[in-house]
Fold each of these.
Amino acid sequence: MRVTIIGGGILGTAHAVEAVSRGHQVVHLEREAEARGASVRNFGLVWVSGRSTGELEAALRSRELWEKLAADIPGIGFRPSGSITLLRTPAELAVAHEAAEGADACHRGFTLLEPGEVRALNPALRGEFLGGLHCALDAAVESRQALPALRDYLSATGRYEFVPGVEARGVDNRTVRDDHGNRYEADLVLVCAGAAHGGLVRELAGNLPVRRVRLQMMQTEPLGETLTTAIADADSFRYYPAFAGAALDTLRTNEAQHPVAEAAHMQLLCVQRLHGGLTIGDTHEYDEPFGFDVHEPPYDYLVNVVEEFLGRTLPPIRQRWAGVYSQCVDPHQLVCRAEPEDDVWVITGPGGRGMTLGPAIAEQTADLIGF
């Protein structure tokens, strides 16, 4: 079939990979010269550990697909490095213990580590903590280079064309019209427009059950040593559904978050890039209209937490940024799919799970549509 895909982020690109792998011809439209949204403003984490029970199978499948892609496309920078969620209080330790003893702990790759075991696994962690919840199945890719690497691989098949710098303005009878007057006839149209909920998306699908979420992140200069796993703090327990239970209820009741972390709906996630710098975040802002400023208190707070875990001063901050992603209002949905007309689909709303779940979502779409 001829497949036209609108949107050059991780969802659009993952669907292009799936379509080409099934033998179809793909034309891929992106309004920018290069994807600039949440798909490149993230950690690059393939985060299995925190997924809900309903999402876990998809997350494990997606990790498998990323690893298979990496065998052919080393440029995506896949590393099966795992993660450690570091614990600072007895209540946090209790949540980790409950998770490590859960029925699906082996399926998630959970192991509860003593401080010495944490340092043996990740020697860069020389600071203070009571222990760590290790997830052996978490992984990472290089978010800023994965999409170009995937496109280069697709282009080499002869069945893929990337068309940057054009904005899709309309779809009529499976023919996409762009803002240059060009038309792209197809048998199937997939609209993966990310956090752009208006314009063509609203025209095709109306008001979808999605919201936008804004986040702040930063990246350091090279650390000068290897951080062998991604790291998180136990505030992440409050945001990821895998940790729901009596111990988390007790934590929420008895231990308030730091005021800065609570105000900005924060958790610490930190992963080392291939160039040695650390990507650190993040905050969550839900109420629009979003401001255009980035705020210093969350950055200061995150620096202090990472330095506490490392037991050393961080390198200088190289850059800071904000991003916006699209999130399904129903937390039990992986993604929002709408079929406004035959053979035209709008796919959006994976939230902060886009890099984790992108390949699996694309595979599910292909199976659902039957292409």
Amino acid sequence: MFCAGADLAEARQGLSSDGPREIVRLQRQIATLPKPVVVELAGPVRAGGLGLVGAADIVIAADSVTFALTEVRLGLAPSAISLSLLPRLAPRAAADIFLSGRTFDAAEAAAIGLVTRCVPDDELAAAVAEALTDLVKGSPQGLAETKRLLTSDLVSRIDRDGEQAAQRSAALFASPEAQRAMQAFLDRR
């Protein structure tokens, strides 16, 4: 598992806005680092984990990796992580995966702009090494300034909408409908 997002057992006991604020802060930190952030995906990515993927600069996924935004099935919305996801995705693709909560594969993730590319599982390490080799050829200033160009809209969106998204997320987690859905999910384990 790359990342499953919020701990539902913890969220079931009441989630303050600190958790969503932290995911907003982390997305901003990834986007504003002066060096490119490369993500190697070798396991499932769910819910909040997609926000980390969305904030990264280069994402290389093994073919076997699956993704899902399951929030809608729990009475939630991907509020905080939408900050980094919506700029990466085609609007129709975003509507599909946000509203359905369905699981999709790495090839589809690449096609809709969530990941940079997908490769056969046994070629993942080599593909990441190749990407890193290419990046180290860039000068620190060139990389930082180019990254700033590429992420300026994303950072502006986080700065403009981050607090509201965190508050909305916290309110949804605290809602009676989400609390019942999270308990039902946990009881099925």
Amino acid sequence: MVPLSILDLVPVIQGSTPREALQCSLDLVRHAERLGYTRYWVAEHHNMTGIASAATSVVIGFLAGGTTTIRVGAGGIMLPNHSPLQVAEQFGTLESLYPGRIDLGLGRAPGTDQLTIHAMRRDPRAADDFPQDVKELQALFAPVRAGQRIQAVPGAGLRVPLWILGSSMFGAQLAAHLGLPYAFASHFAPAALHDALAAYRARFQASEQSERPHAMVGVNVVVAETDREAQRLFTTLQQAFTDLHRGTRGLQKPPIDDIDTYWTPAEKIAASSMLKHAIVGSPQTVRAGLERFVEETKADEVMVVTSVFDHDARKRSYEILADLWGQAPRST
């Protein structure tokens, strides 16, 4: 079985606060650690009331500080929003505090809209410099060279593992060129999945960090005792993707009995297209679906996203998944 990891968007549900969302994430990462999940990532999003992970490095420190063995990281840091030096200092600090447990996934999207980019004082053209910024970040994590005038303190010499995130051919080609592990966001942008993975593997050049390609693939998974209950829990995410299509934002919504009362036929097509790889159902249904997904993608690792309104049901979904997939519980 390939290893499983978790991407947590730190969702703020209706009737709750960002503080409560962060506390739920701490509870969930501890649960994931006990269940044997490999890594636990949070992502950078801005000006979104339903996501509480905007200060991503701070959230990573909070979660790493509450655990002892699971890898914790960014999936990802949107590098055009920051200088490589600042990112190296932040993640060098995290690596110094929690050695051997920090991952740094890098994306070139802004993680927000154009108006918010302006509020962040970022140049929208900064994404064009993404490949060079990744190389600069690599250099900042490398051992200090003679005469080097700019150093990340802490950071220099710590070699924090870098990942390239993507949902297109660009990220796949860059990850292959730099010899870095690659994480594909098929949990919301599945169109280029197979082409991107094929290009990444075909063009991969071994590097000091990675001798061979390592592809992690994101997928939405909801497991419950029955197919019917899992499908009902899944309506929370279906509503969220419908709202995304409508251009609206908000807090995570509770599940509903009939999703067809919420979306129009056109919205159903759009949302279902983005969710085409979602695996939802009973343990038997999900095991079969996940086995097919891994066989089709040849994924080296699967990053699971479980967007469920009820915190206990979300924990239970990850628990059932770990059990049916044969994850090895950790002693913590």
